[in-house]
């Protein structure tokens, strides 16, 4: 009788473990990327390998992970994608490269991208992105490359970007930005050609002579 009870207990333990197993397979980074996939139209099936049922997204095409199986790169440039970005991308806390250039992505840049503290490169150029540049991008203290050119962005260039000491390349040309161009911090070394074709930009900020905040939206 005791043996039978032990057998039943072991069997129930195994069944319970099997029932719990799918929950253990959940992966927040995979969930974030799956949310991105659902928001995009993919006529060339570039995202076909993005199977949300896998333990993690490290085997997906166009995704690179580190040795701890955390996502460090999303490489989807020039992939004929359309749709919009999702706030869930802000959960990819180990992400270093977000490459989504030369697609037809619309909508705005989620403020949650400011949570990507490891981000080195944000390449969203040559899309159809609108709205403003989120000031939260000033939180990206590892950022080196910020290329947002050839979109439909409006509003000012956030002054918060001036505090990113690592920033080497900023290109916001060919948008509809307004207000003055920051001239402090990394902006001291950014060529004016990287701001051209923004008809409402007022030129470089004159420190001490002009207020930065203008009626710009």
TrEMBL record:
Keyword Mitochondrion assigned to the entry: answer is no
In terms of InterPro entries, this protein maps to:
LRR_dom_sf, LRR_N_plant-typ, LRR_R13L4/SHOC2-like
- Signal peptide annotation: 1-26
The Leucine-rich repeat-containing N-terminal plant-type domain covers which part of the protein? 27-66
Q: Which UniProt keywords apply?
A: Leucine-rich repeat, Repeat, Signal
Report domain Disease resistance R13L4/SHOC-2-like LRR positions.
75-174
The molecule here is called Leucine-rich repeat-containing N-terminal plant-type domain-containing protein
């Amino acid at each position: 009788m005791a043996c039978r009870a032990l057998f039943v207990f072991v069997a129930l333990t195994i069944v319970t473990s099997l029932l719990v197993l799918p929950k253990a397979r959940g992966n927040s980074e995979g969930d974030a990327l799956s949310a991105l996939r659902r928001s995009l139209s993919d006529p060339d099936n570039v995202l076909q390998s993005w199977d949300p049922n896998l333990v993690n997204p490290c085997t997906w095409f166009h995704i690179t992970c580190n040795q701890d199986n955390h996502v460090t790169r999303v490489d989807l440039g020039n992939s004929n994608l359309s749709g919009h970005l999702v706030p869930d991308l802000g959960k990819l806390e180990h992400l270093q490269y977000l490459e989504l250039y030369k697609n037809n992505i619309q909508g705005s840049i989620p403020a949650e991208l400011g949570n990507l503290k490891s981000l080195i490169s944000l390449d969203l150029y040559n899309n159809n992105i609108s709205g403003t540049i989120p000031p939260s991008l000033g939180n990206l203290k590892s950022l080196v490359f910020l290329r947002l050119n050839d979109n439909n962005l409006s509003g000012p260039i956030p002054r918060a970007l001036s505090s990113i000491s690592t920033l080497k390349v900023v290109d916001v040309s060919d948008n509809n930005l307004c207000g003055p161009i920051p001239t402090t911090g990394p902006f001291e070394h950014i060529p004016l050609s990287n701001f051209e074709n923004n008809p409402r930009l007022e030129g470089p900020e004159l420190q001490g002579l002009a207020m930065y905040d203008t009626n710009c939206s």
